Amino acid sequence: MNQNEYANHCIVCNVTSCQNHHRDKNYCSLECIRVGTREEQPAYTPCTDCQSFVPSAT
Ligand code: SF4
Q1: Residue 30 Cβ < 6 Å to ligand 1
Q2: Whose CA is nearest to atom 6 of ligand 1?
Q3: How far apart are CA 26 and CA 13, in angstroms?
Q4: Residue boundaries of the structural domains of the chain
Q5: Is the pLDDT of residue 18 over 90?
Q6: What is the per-residue burial (b if ≥16 Cβ within 10 Å, else e) of 7-20?
Q7: Whole-model pTM?
């Protein structure tokens, strides 16, 4: 099965520039993702990132 045919309804995502994005639906196609931060003390939503992001080939 093409990886991106699977929409994980537990991971809503609108990052369409990621190779793991479902494409047609706003879901991730992975079974699980890793979320992390580059901050020492994350305090706001933008402080966290999906570390499973893979940029789309251009
Ligand atoms: S890996 Fe992260 S950024 Fe990429 S589609 Fe999944 S949730 Fe979105």
Answers
A1: yes
A2: 28
A3: 5
A4: 3-50
A5: yes
A6: bbeebebeeeebeb
A7: 0.88
Residue 51 near residue 35 (C-beta atoms within 8 A): yes
Kindly state if the Cβ of 13 falls inside 6 Å of ligand 1.
yes
Which tokens belong to 12?
Answer: 């809503």
pLDDT in tens, 19-53: 999 989 999 999 999 999 999 999 999 999 999 99
HEC profile of the chain: CCHHHCCEEEEECCCCCECCECCCCCEECCCCCCEEECCCCCCCHHHEEECCCCECCC
Token pair listed for 4: 């991106």
